[in-house]
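hiii so um. not sure if this is the right channel but i have a protein structure encoded as tokens and i wanna go backwards to a sequence. like what aa goes where. can anyone help
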């Protein structure tokens, strides 16, 4: 059976725009596992921070580890925001395409909350509304920057 050009185009669009988004969401879910708990990441991040800041007190290193983890939350959801905006802005459905910012924001907020809910079932993890807020801040920061850039580009056209 011969595939239509539209069907091939839809498949290419899915692979190019939606598959990276889905894979990133899967990666976020993996990062919510016990393997990426604070106690496990401290064996990697701790020595690195100690090497970078050899004169830092143990309390300072613990706080820096906390900040690095929160920055990780922020950045992983900023990337999610970029990938969501990229996918939804190019959607074949006009309703999604025209509301890419809103749809992306709902995905970010929903996934941040779902991620923390999932962590509440992982023994070495804890669910934290603060982490969800940091996640959402990263995602919405990326969306706002993308929308600002998009408006600037339109202004100069």
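sure thing!! here u go:
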């Amino acid at each position: 059976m011969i595939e239509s050009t539209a069907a091939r185009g839809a498949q290419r669009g899915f692979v190019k725009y939606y598959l990276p988004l889905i894979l990133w969401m899967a990666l976020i879910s993996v990062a919510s596992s016990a393997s990426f708990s604070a106690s496990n990441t401290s064996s990697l991040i701790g020595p690195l921070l100690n090497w970078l800041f050899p004169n830092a007190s143990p309390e300072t290193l613990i706080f820096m580890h906390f900040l690095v983890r929160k920055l990780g939350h922020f950045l992983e959801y900023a990337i999610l925001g970029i990938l969501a905006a990229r996918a939804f802005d190019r959607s074949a459905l006009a309703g999604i395409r025209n509301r890419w910012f809103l749809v992306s924001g709902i995905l970010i907020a929903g996934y941040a909350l779902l991620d923390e809910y999932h962590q509440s079932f992982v023994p070495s993890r804890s669910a934290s509304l603060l982490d969800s807020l940091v996640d959402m801040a990263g995602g919405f920061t990326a969306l706002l920057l993308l929308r600002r850039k998009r408006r600037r580009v339109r202004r100069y056209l």
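oh and The chain is about 80% helix and 0% strand.
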